[in-house]
Amino acid sequence: MGNHLLSAKATLPVYDRNNLAPRIVHLGFGAFHRAHQGVYADILATEHFSDWGYYEVNLIGGEQQIADLQQQDNLYTVAEMSADAWTARVVGVVKKALHVQIDGLETVLAAMCEPQIAIVSLTITEKGYFHSPATGQLMLDHPMVVADVQNPHQPKTATGVIVEALARRKAAGLPAFTVMSCDNMPENGHVMRDVVTSYAQAIDVKLAQWIEDNVTFPSTMVDRIVPAVTEDTLAKIEQLTGVRDPAGVACEPFRQWVIEDNFVAGRPEWEKAG
């Protein structure tokens, strides 16, 4: 999907995408992330000259989403629907899209270990944390968690992948990154911290201490209504842009993002994006 193919009905990336630096790795390239965090980053790049770009990663499922993105120069469309009209924005802040099943775990971990990576964010749904909602603690007896603890260098869970990336950064003398949950659950930063530190303690006590000393886990609250993508959604996006975009999403205009300002390696100025 090249910019020259898009109609004037869509808001196009006017910034030089080559100037974007991949500073955020996002785990969970689903519809909500595309319509929420991706739009914030695109507004910042468009209106405030931000150079914060994304690496998008899916670990389990969503292979087609990543393949679609890879095939269209990492561009995708967000259509906002209101009572009066539809508008479309082509989001251009994605530098690279990866999937463990397509590109391999080592490629994903290498991306997370690039020196400039400052934030790893997540939208993996609550069940992806493998924690007990009653206690908030990591379920160390869950088969997937057990498998990661037994083979920590080849993790399958998001927590295992994050801890392995942090272990490699520590070994290489690289700074830690901030881990930011963007999933809709109470005190998501506390949940994220607890599952990461509990898992790290199960595999390497010294690593767990390094994480506690060097990593922050800000809590966030996210809000945007993003209906499931249907054939009608994609047809409407094609009508707006002139391009068939299988990675496109639709959403309502209202969006909100409340973020605890607790970052170890900087952050975008999200507050400027409204």
Task: Describe the protein's architecture and organization.
By secondary structure, this protein is α/β, with parallel strands linked by helices. Helix 8 (188-203) runs antiparallel to helix 9. The two termini are 28 Å apart. The protein has one domain (3-273): 3-Layer(aba) Sandwich (Rossmann fold). It is globular, with a radius of gyration of 18 Å. It has helices spanning 31-35, 37-48, 63-71, 100-103, 105-112, 143-150, 158-171, 188-203, 205-214, 231-241; strands at residues 10-11, 21-27, 52-58, 76-81, 86-91, 94-99, 119-122, 178-181, 220-223, 249-251, 256-259. It has 10 helices and 11 strands. Helices cover 35% and strands 19% of the residues. The strands form 3 sheets. The chain has a 5-stranded parallel β-sheet with strand order 6-3-2-7-8, sandwiched between helices. A 4-stranded mixed β-sheet has the order 1-5-4-10, sandwiched between helices. Strands 9-11 form a two-stranded antiparallel sheet.
List keywords for this structure.
single chain; 274 residues; alpha/beta; Rossmann fold; five-stranded parallel β-sheet; four-stranded mixed β-sheet; 10 helices; 11 strands; disordered N terminus
In the CATH scheme, the class would be Alpha Beta
Helical content stands at: 25-40%
Listing every helix as H and every strand as E from the N terminus to the C terminus, the arrangement reads EEHHEHEEEHHEHHEHHEHEE
Q: What's the arrangement of strands in the largest beta sheet?
A: 6-3-2-7-8
Query: Low-confidence runs (pLDDT<50, min 5 residues)?
Result: 2-8
CATH architecture identity: 3-Layer(aba) Sandwich
SS content category: alpha/beta
Largest sheet: 5 strands, parallel
Name given to the CATH homologous superfamily: NAD(P)-binding Rossmann-like Domain
End-to-end separation in angstroms reads 28 Å
Count helical runs.
10
CATH topology: Rossmann fold
Task: Kindly give the count of domains.
Answer: 1
Strand tally is 11
